[in-house]
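step 4 of 6: structure.
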Amino acid sequence: MFELPEYLTLARQMNDTLPGKTVQRGQLGNSPHKFLWYNRSPEEFERLSQGKTVGQAQARGRWLFLPLEPGYVLVLGECGGKVLYHPPGSGAPKKYHLYITFEDGSFLTATTQMWGAMELYAQGEEQDREYIKDMRPTPADPEFTFVYWNALLDELIPEKKRSAKALLTQDQLIPGLGNAIAQDILYRARLHPRHPIDELDAGQRQALYEAIVATVRDVIAQGGRYDEYDLYGQPGGYVRLMDKKAAGHPCPECGAVVEKMSYLGGTCYFCPSCQV
Ligand SMILES: [Zn+2]
């Protein structure tokens, strides 16, 4: 699944490639998918997107906004899989959930894996959508300061018991993070995924904040994770420290064997010695 760095990479590459292109035909998928959210019928999507011009893309959290001007915004949310640009003359993929052909013969396709939203809104109305409306600051936003971070923890701790992994991956508390990047953040912060957030001392709060910001910055700088694809079908450059390849091998810091466990809807990889 795409996380914040992959969405920011896609938006940046879209802005290198798509603005100014005119939509010749916009089609929704040819491949049924149970957990794909559309808000338009295929006919409506085709009619509303036709003749529109692509504006500047933006990403926030796990949501990407591509203006189709005048008046509309294509929203891709919480997707995995592939969002691909195809230069003129490229072959079309067999299966897709979104297929937008431009007048210059190039096209954009999107195919998601687990789930995802592919919706078209009248400009501005997308801001009222669930998960977009009232989105908290993401780690790529200037508002995500250490002062904000401490205030967030102070707000969440009385609410209910949460672990460090729950803080990073559940309820959109830190929008844009997911199970993949959370592994490396917890490793860098030297925190066990189950560590309760109400037991973080001042040093651990600071370490976790710094790990979030530094990890997100690194993954963005390297164009996303190595197991996800960018707009041009190229894998990202960021190799995860803690993933299935690390399990059973020595921790790079201390040499203890990296363990894996199922926890909160995903596999965790962690060093039982470094992460407390
Ligand atoms: Zn270790």
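step 5 of 6: annotate
 - Residues 202-221 form the longest helix (20 residues).
 - Residues 223 and 236 are 5 Å apart (CA to CA).
step 6 of 6: archive
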